[in-house]
């Protein structure tokens, strides 16, 4: 890739304001050509609105969006060029259920000046055996694979996937991942929103975390995890309230989240050396005459990065 080439997506001061909320608050965002960027955020964070503006489905209140150097709304030729470069899979696609799978792909192919052969796409998404089946008879996973085939039919350079595997079983989810990875291996660029940390960790080169209309963290998964300054996470509940200061004083403890309700502490600690921190935590609870419940430990992950920045789990509202 020539360093002088424009990014796949360049958003400048992008904003979307509704009467009662500023959903996206003047963000700058770039997606590099050939990468997969995952946008994570709790419900209402602004991620879907951002992606819909990039896709041309929602009009921005302010700012500029360019795809491969073409600016949405600048001219009819720019808009047409963007549509030819873009493939979109929505959270839920409503197909004509009386058409067959093959007829559906051929219908979408007719929207483009050039398109990928329908039989090739059927093989790509493992729907050869369903080519003559009515869409209304497909399972949820099969419909999602059909939606992905329709997003790929115009041979896009940028593929936008909004929660592409929500509600799917693990096998169907992995089938979608393999298709997305094959697209990227051919040089394609991907903009992904997801509620699954495993999905983001597997597919994304970089991760953007959104909350309240802002991008609050953006980097590679490894760098984001390293930014916690912790190797492990310790989580537990204690049947009385413990002081934040006592928890921070424990050896190798970094970040402390201590939520107190009804005389109990719900604790989450980022630690650099669990061999030192865990015995000290047990000693602290014993010294306070407290009972420790539900102790769990795990290696630091993207989920922990998300909780660190937002104070919420990814699937929390």
Give a description of the structure.
Helix content is 33%, strand content 29%. It has 317 residues and is α/β, with parallel strands linked by helices. It has two domains: 9-220, Rossmann fold (3-Layer(aba) Sandwich), CATH 3.40.50; 229-299, Alpha-Beta Plaits (2-Layer Sandwich), CATH 3.30.70.100. A six-stranded mixed β-sheet has the order 6-7-8-3-9-10, sandwiched between helices. Strands 2-1-4-5 form a four-stranded antiparallel β-sheet, covered by helices on one side. A four-stranded antiparallel β-sheet has the order 12-13-11-14. The model has no long low-confidence stretch (mean pLDDT 91).
CATH second-level architecture of the largest domain: 3-Layer(aba) Sandwich
Radius of gyration: 23 Å
Biggest sheet details = 6 strands, mixed
Please give the count of helices.
Answer: 11
Q: What general outline do the C-alpha atoms trace?
A: elongated
CATH superfamily of the largest domain: P-loop containing nucleotide triphosphate hydrolases
Top-tier CATH class of the largest domain: Alpha Beta
Whole-number average pLDDT? 91
Structural class: alpha/beta
Strand tally? 14
N- to C-terminal distance? 40 Å
Helical residues, percent? 25-40%
- Identify low-pLDDT runs: none
Strand content: 25-35%
For the structure shown, list the relevant keywords.
Alpha-Beta Plaits; six-stranded mixed β-sheet; alpha/beta; 2 domains; Rossmann fold; 33% helix; four-stranded antiparallel β-sheet; 317 residues; 11 helices
SSE topology:
Elements: E1 9-18, E2 21-31, E3 36-40, H1 47-55, E4 62-67, E5 70-71, H2 76-85, E6 86-89, H3 101-109, H4 118-124, H5 140-152, E7 158-162, H6 170-185, E8 189-193, H7 197-203, E9 206-211, E10 214-219, H8 221-226, E11 232-238, H9 244-248, E12 253-261, E13 264-271, H10 274-287, E14 292-299, H11 302-310
Parallel strand pairs: 3-8, 3-9, 6-7, 7-8
Antiparallel strand pairs: 1-2, 1-4, 4-5, 9-10, 11-13, 11-14, 12-13
């Amino acid at each position: 890739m020539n360093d002088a080439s424009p990014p796949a997506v360049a958003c400048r001061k992008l904003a979307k304001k509704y009467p009662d909320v500023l959903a996206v608050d003047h963000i700058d965002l770039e997606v590099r050509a050939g990468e997969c960027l995952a946008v994570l955020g709790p419900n209402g964070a602004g991620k879907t609105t951002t992606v819909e503006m990039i896709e041309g489905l929602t009009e921005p209140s302010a700012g500029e969006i360019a795809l491969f150097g073409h600016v949405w709304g600048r001219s009819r030729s720019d808009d047409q060029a963007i549509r030819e470069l873009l493939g979109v899979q929505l959270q839920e696609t409503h197909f004509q259920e009386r058409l067959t799978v093959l007829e559906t792909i051929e219908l979408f192919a007719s929207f483009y000046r050039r398109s990928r052969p329908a039989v090739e796409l059927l093989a790509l998404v493992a729907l050869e055996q369903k080519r003559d089946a009515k869409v209304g008879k497909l399972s949820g996973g099969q419909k999602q694979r059909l939606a992905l085939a329709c997003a790929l039919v115009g041979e896009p350079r940028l593929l936008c996937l909004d929660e592409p595997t929500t509600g799917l079983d693990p096998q169907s989810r992995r089938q979608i991942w393999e298709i997305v990875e094959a697209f990227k291996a051919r040089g394609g660029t991907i903009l992904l929103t997801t509620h699954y940390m495993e999905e983001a960790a597997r597919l994304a080169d970089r991760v953007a975390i959104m909350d309240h209309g802002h991008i609050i963290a953006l980097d590679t998964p490894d760098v984001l995890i390293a930014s916690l300054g912790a190797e492990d996470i310790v989580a537990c509940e204690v049947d009385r309230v413990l002081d934040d200061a006592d928890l921070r004083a424990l050896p190798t403890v970094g970040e402390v989240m201590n939520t107190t309700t009804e005389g109990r502490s719900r604790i989450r600690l980022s630690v650099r050396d669990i061999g030192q921190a865990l015995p000290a935590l047990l000693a602290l609870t014993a010294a306070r005459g407290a009972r420790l419940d539900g102790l769990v430990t795990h290696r630091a992950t993207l989920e922990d990065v998300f909780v660190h920045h937002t104070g919420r789990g990814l699937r929390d509202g």
